[in-house]
UniProtKB/TrEMBL annotation:
GO terms, molecular function: ATP binding; phosphorelay sensor kinase activity
Main location: membrane
Residues of the full protein shown: 188 to 422 of 422
Record GO biological process: cell wall organization
Location(s), subcellular: Cell membrane
Catalytic activity: ATP + protein L-histidine = ADP + protein N-phospho-L-histidine
Membrane topology per record: Multi-pass membrane protein
Enzyme superclass (EC): transferase
Organism per entry: Paenibacillus chitinolyticus
Protein name stated in the entry: histidine kinase
Record EC number: 2.7.13.3
Keywords, in A-Z order: ATP-binding, Cell membrane, Kinase, Membrane, Nucleotide-binding, Phosphoprotein, Transferase, Transmembrane, Transmembrane helix, Two-component regulatory system
Annotated ranges, domain Histidine kinase: 20-230
Amino acid sequence: MYLRYLQSEKIEAVGQVAASLVHEVRNPLTTVLGFLKLIRQDQAMPPEKLHRFIDISIEEVKRTEAILSEYLSMSKPLTQKREVIDLAHELEAVAEVMTPYATMNNVSLILHVPSEPVRLSANRAEMKQLLVNFVKNAVEACSAIQKGNVTLRMHTDGLLVKVHIRDNGIGMNKEQLRRLGSIYYSTKNTGTGLGLTYSYQVIRSMNGTVSVFSELHKGTEFTLSLPLASKDPDG
Ligand code: ADP
Ligand code: MG
């Protein structure tokens, strides 16, 4: 009985992933197909119109690509190779990668990291992916407001490193906070609801914790607490 239950739950989960993936990929495909048909029908289409249709189609194909790679990165097994990384450096790199996205959304990204290395035993790719997920959500939470700010802060606290990701965006109510991290929970049009589920899993696998403070229409602060690597590599 027990085994069967687990099995069917797993199949259901796979079915859900497939269903949402199909949904997310079908929309842009339909758009591109529509434009291609229009271009095919209207041989005398003015060049500006033609270019606009092609540009939109390129954007839609890029979006499909992004959705598929997001699914792929989430479906990779957790905790592959671990090594000692400098989290201050990784957060700087993530901020750099996310700056164009923030600018595009009219959001300022502010970074405060310690000047000395923050040593942590982690899988670098997983760590980067999870930081990107939090920063991306913070930027998206600010996208609808006038002066969006996302502040990334990091400091050590005893045997832990704390990473604060704060935004002054839309915030969340009690019910939204309660559902946070559940698989497929998303309030966005093109959201997957996989980002936080994945991030929480990675953090748990590192024996870390996450706390969230949020106020509707004021903003949100996520605090990640992760155990530092021991000073002595042999001890
Ligand atoms: P997605 O970003 O694809 O929606 P996530 O798992 O990354 O999926 O996030 C799930 C949901 O959690 C989001 O849709 C949003 O409602 C909420 N959320 C996450 N981070 C924030 C934030 N910084 N501010 C407000 N809401 C957030
Ligand atoms: Mg997200």
